[in-house]
Amino acid sequence: MLGLNNKQYDENIKNIPSDDSYPMVSILFSKNNGIGVNALSLTILDLINKGQIKCDIELDDSYEVGKKLTPQDMEVMKSMTLRIANKGELKTSETSAIHLLKNMNKNKKFNLKFMAKQSNNSSIANKFEKDYNEFVKALKNENGFNDKNYKDILLNAKLTDKGKELKKEWKHYKEYLKSKDLTEKYPPESVLENSTQVIYGSCFDIEKDVLKIRENNTPLTDFIDKDGYKLLNIIFNNTLLNVTEKRKGDGIFYGVNDKYTIPGGG
Questions:
Q1: How far lies 138's CA from each of 26, 34, 112, 141, 168, in Å?
Q2: Which of helix, strand or coil describes residue 84?
Q3: Structure-derived torsion over alpha carbons of residues 72, 75, 76, 79, reported in degrees to the nearest 10
Q4: CA separation, residue 201 to residues 16, 160, 178, 198 (Å)
Q5: Cα 48 to Cα 40: distance, rounded to the nearest angstrom
Q6: Helix orientation angle between 122-143 and 37-49, rounded to the nearest 10 degrees
Q7: For the residues of 131-147, what is the DSSP string, one character each?
Q8: Rounded distance, CA 114 to CA 81, Å?
């Protein structure tokens, strides 16, 4: 057993508490149980990890985006290229995410700077919103989630007793992810487990902290190392901010973060 903040843990601390998808882990334990653009970004991270989206980065050093986007950030984005491979079977939400990326970038291969510039185009943004809605609907259908109810974990938008217990288990797992002592004591046993743990870190917005105490040894971890997850969220948020068509009520809450804007509009 190992003590951390007066708590005792054994090797079971590294076991994933449930088989819920990455977006659902993030959604269930957010403040409002709502679906935001990070659900889309997490899906893309998973597709990169599975090799469904190839990632090429022409930058050796680690990188972190500051409080505002700078010309340097834009050049870093230019060095990060995604290429859609799209081989084999995919879930409907994954197919929707890939379809959205193709429509937004007009190609299967694109860099993040190009996608960021596209996000300032209102016609692109209007199309993105429709594709994003399709992604959200697919995600809900796959998981049996309707904003207020999910399995026996969420009922009428509130966590059930089981949900509260599961949240506690995920909190412990989160502590493991960001603890250097626990990670050294119970390290990932494979490259895949290492990458998986980094994606779970993204679910809790601690991905860079998680990666600092793990190996950067895959395209996915290198993408995280260059703040790729945060950049995806910034781009998708900016796109929704540039939607000009009036929406009909569909019950979808975007939770758009307007902290960042992309040079050239937005």
A1: 17, 15, 25, 5, 28
A2: strand
A3: -170
A4: 12, 24, 8, 5
A5: 13
A6: 80
A7: HHHHHHHHHHHHHTB-S
A8: 10
Distances in whole angstroms, Cα of residue 120 to Cα of each of 79, 84, 255: 20, 22, 18
pTM of the model: 0.91
Q: What share of the chain is helix, strand, coil (3-state, %, to 5)?
A: 50, 10, 40
Q: Read out DSSP for 172-205? A: HHHHHHH-HHHHHHS--SSHHHHHHHHHHHHHTT
What is the tens place of the pLDDT at every residue in 108-143? 999 999 999 999 999 999 999 999 999 999 999 999
HSE value, Cβ hemisphere, 13 Å, CA-based, for 145: 23
pLDDT(256) > 80: no
Distance, CA of 233 to CA of 223 (rounded, Å):
13
Token couple for 222: 């290198």
Q: Fill in the amino acid letter for 107.
A: N
d(C-alpha 149, C-alpha 146), whole Å = 6
The two structure tokens encoding residue 182? 């626990």
What are 144's strand-pairing partners? none
For residue 110, the one-letter residue type is F
pLDDT above 70 as % of the chain: 90
